[in-house]
Every structure is written in C-alpha cells, then in structure tokens.
Design goal:
Number of strands: 5
Number of helices: 4
Number of domains: 1
Order of helices and strands: EHEHEEHEH
Largest sheet: 5 strands, mixed
Radius of gyration: 15 Å
Structural class: alpha/beta
Strand content: 15-25%
C-alpha cells in the first residue's frame, strides 16, 4: 500500500516594503513552481493570527521569516519546534500585535498547530519602511529557498 504524502504548508512571512522584512516574500517568489503541487505556499504580511485557521489539518509547516540582528545580517537559523522553542528575542521590530512565535504558541494551546514545524529565520538589519534589503539578506533568500525545498522532501 502506498503511503500518501503528508499535508505540508510553507508560510513566508514579511513585508517587502520594509527592507529585510521582505525576506519571506522574496523566498516565496523563488519557491513558486519549485515545490510539489500538493504543497501549499502562502505569504503573510501582517498579524499572524489570521493564519491559524490555515494550519488546521496540516501535518507539517515550514515558516520563513526575517529575524532581529543578533550577530550578522544574512545569518540563517533553523529551528525545529519539536525540539526547541522559537527565541522571542529574534523577532524583528513590528507594528503587529502577534508575531510568528506568539501565533504558533496560541495555535498549540488551541490544538490547531501542525505536529511538525520548522522555522527558518534570517537575521536582518534594515526594517524601516522604504528601506532597501540588506545585500546579505537578499543573498540568504536563495539559500533559504534551497533549504525549504530539501525540508519539504524530507517531510514527505
């Protein structure tokens, strides 16, 4: 008997008008057409609370988001939320009430979160409205897209 693939969702978070926060949409653009047809790809530009209903019935989720600068712009972090928590100090400056970490915590409390969640966070330095994306972050977007494709294959 052939096992059906897991239901997977890739969520790319960010605002392309806020410099490095545009990482998610840039990765989504790179991923368009590169993922298997049964893997959903979505972008989120705002409060993450609205995404929680989309997570229901999903077996695995891969999220891409910009992170606050800790050491080096463009540095890629991978968090498997089965074994670690998403650090709260990595959230970039935002005007939204709930960020990705808070939305995931709420979804877990409501038993609406996928069983398997991986987050790719890329450190950024420029988040002001109208700012240009840092070259290192733009370069990291391609590598993150490659890692997401590989992650999807490993979760299937």
């Amino acid at each position: 008997m052939t096992k059906s693939p897991r239901r997977l969702l890739v969520v790319c978070v960010g605002n392309p008008d806020r410099g490095d926060d545009g990482l998610g949409p840039l990765v989504a653009k790179t991923l368009a057409g590169a993922l298997p047809a049964d893997v959903r790809l979505t972008c989120a530009n705002g409060d993450m609370l609205g995404l929680i209903p989309q997570w229901s019935g999903v077996d695995g989720m891969i999220c891409v988001d910009a992170a606050a600068l800790l050491t080096t712009p463009g540095r890629i972090h991978r968090f498997d939320l089965a074994t670690t928590e998403l650090p709260r100090d990595m959230a970039p400056p935002s005007s939204h009430a709930l960020g990705l970490a808070e939305a995931i915590a709420l979804a877990r409390a409501l038993e609406q979160a996928p069983r398997h969640i991986v987050v790719y966070a890329v450190e950024g330095a420029a988040f002001a409205g109208g700012a240009a994306m840092t070259p290192a972050v733009a370069t990291a977007a391609g590598e993150v897209a490659r890692r997401v494709v590989a992650e999807v294959e490993s979760l299937r």
